[in-house]
C-alpha cells in the first residue's frame, strides 16, 4: 500500500499555532518517506453547527502560504455522509450499535447515583442506561456497544505511539459506549475519522497529543468494521496562558500568513515545538526541505 498521511482540520476558525504544528508534522512525516508517499488534506466539517462558512477555504490558503500543499484535491466530510451511513448500518447489523435516549443531564444523574463525579476535561463514562432499550424515551444518539465488543477480547487495549511509546486503555471502563451519531444529524468524530482514514488509504496518522486518548476507541471501530489500523504519532501541544491546549476558547490567535516573511516566521515557531533545529534558509520552501531529513532521523521507523 502507498504510504499516506493526512492533515484533517475542523473549519471552526483559522489555523493557529497549535494546528500549524500538527500540519507541519504530518507533512514532514510524509515527505520523509520519499516521493512515492502522499500527503492529503481533509476538511472535517461533519459537525456543521460548529463550522464557519468559508473557513475551510481560508485554512487551505493559510497552508498554501506556508508551502504545505496536498498531493490530491482536498476532500470535505459533508460530501462523504453516505460512507458514514453505510458504516453505521454495518455496525447495526452486527448488533454493535444501539439507540440511546439519554441527555447529558441524564448521564450525570446516573453517574452521581453510582458515586461517580464528572471531572473537568474528564470523560463521562456512559453507564449503559439504554443498552436494553429506550424505555419510552426518544432516541438522541446511536452508541457503539463497547462492552459487548470488548467482551470477546477483555482487558486493556494496547497500542504503540511512535513518539509517546506504549499506550493502553480499557475503553469499557474508561469511556463506555461512545456516540457514533447524534439523532439530530451530525456524525461523531470517532466514526467519521475511522471511515475516512480507511477509505483514503491513510497508513500514518500524525496529529496533536490531545487526540491520543481517542485512539483506542478508533482502533475498536476499525476492528469491528474490518478496517486496517494505521500507525499513530501524537505531537507536542502548544499551550495557552492557562496551561490548557491552545484553542480559540483560551485566546489562540490565527497564524499570520499575509506575507512570505510572516508565513516563514509561523513555520519556524511550529518547527521549534517539534524539536527541529532553526532554519538557516530564508524561505518556507527551503526551510521545509531542510527539516525533512531531521524529521526522518527522529521518526524514521514504525513500531
Which descriptors apply to this entry?
303 residues; alpha/beta; elongated
Overall description:
With 303 residues, this protein is α/β, with parallel strands linked by helices. It is 36% helix and 15% strand. The chain has 10 helices and 10 strands. It has a 3-stranded parallel sheet with strand order 1-2-3, covered by helices on one side. The longest helix is centred in the last third of the chain and has 16 residues. It is elongated, with a radius of gyration of 20 Å. The mean pLDDT is 90.
How many strands appear in the DSSP assignment? 10
Across the major sheet, the strand order is 1-2-3
Helix content: 25-40%
Query: Major sheet, described briefly?
Result: 3 strands, parallel
Rg over alpha carbons: 20 Å
Short account of what is shown:
With 303 residues, this protein is an alpha/beta fold. Helices cover 36% and strands 15% of the residues. The two termini are 17 Å apart.
SSE layout:
Elements: E1 4-7, H1 17-31, E2 38-43, H2 55-65, E3 75-76, H3 81-93, E4 97-100, H4 104-113, E5 141-144, H5 146-150, E6 157-161, E7 165-169, H6 171-174, E8 179-182, H7 189-199, E9 204-208, H8 215-225, E10 231-235, H9 260-273, H10 284-299
Helix pairs in contact: 1-9, 1-10, 3-7, 7-8
Amino acid at each position: 500500500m502507498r504510504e499516506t498521511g493526512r492533515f484533517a482540520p475542523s473549519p471552526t476558525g483559522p489555523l493557529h499555532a497549535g494546528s500549524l504544528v500538527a500540519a507541519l508534522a504530518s507533512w514532514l512525516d510524509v515527505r520523509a518517506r520519499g516521493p512515492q508517499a502522499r500527503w492529503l488534506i481533509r476538511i472535517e466539517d461533519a459537525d456543521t453547527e460548529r463550522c464557519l462558512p468559508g473557513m475551510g477555504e481560508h485554512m487551505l490558503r493559510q497552508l498554501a502560504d506556508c508551502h504545505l500543499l496536498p498531493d490530491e484535491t482536498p476532500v470535505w466530510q459533508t460530501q462523504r455522509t453516505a460512507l458514514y451511513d453505510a458504516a453505521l448500518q454495518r455496525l447495526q447489523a452486527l448488533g454493535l450499535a444501539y439507540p440511546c435516549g439519554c441527555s447529558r443531564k441524564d448521564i450525570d444523574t446516573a453517574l452521581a447515583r453510582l458515586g461517580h463525579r464528572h471531572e473537568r476535561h474528564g470523560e463521562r463514562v456512559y453507564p449503559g442506561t439504554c443498552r436494553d432499550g429506550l424505555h419510552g424515551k426518544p432516541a438522541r444518539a446511536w452508541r457503539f456497544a463497547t462492552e459487548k465488543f470488548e467482551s470477546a477480547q477483555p482487558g486493556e487495549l494496547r497500542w504503540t505511539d511512535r513518539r509517546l511509546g506504549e499506550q493502553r486503555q480499557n475503553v469499557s471502563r474508561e469511556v463506555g459506549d461512545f456516540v457514533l451519531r447524534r439523532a439530530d444529524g451530525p456524525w461523531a468524530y470517532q466514526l467519521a475519522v475511522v471511515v475516512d482514514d480507511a477509505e483514503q488509504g491513510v497508513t500514518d496518522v500524525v496529529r496533536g497529543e490531545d487526540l491520543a486518548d481517542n485512539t483506542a476507541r478508533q482502533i475498536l471501530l476499525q476492528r469491528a468494521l474490518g478496517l486496517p489500523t494505521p500507525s499513530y504519532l501524537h505531537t507536542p501541544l502548544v499551550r495557552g496562558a492557562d496551561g490548557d491546549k491552545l484553542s480559540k476558547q483560551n485566546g489562540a490567535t490565527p497564524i499570520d500568513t499575509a506575507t512570505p516573511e510572516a508565513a516563514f516566521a509561523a513555520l519556524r515557531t511550529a518547527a521549534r515545538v517539534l524539536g527541529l533545529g532553526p532554519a538557516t534558509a530564508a524561505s518556507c520552501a527551503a526551510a521545509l526541505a531542510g527539516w525533512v531529513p531531521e524529521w526522518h532521523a527522529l521518526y524514521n521507523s514504525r513500531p
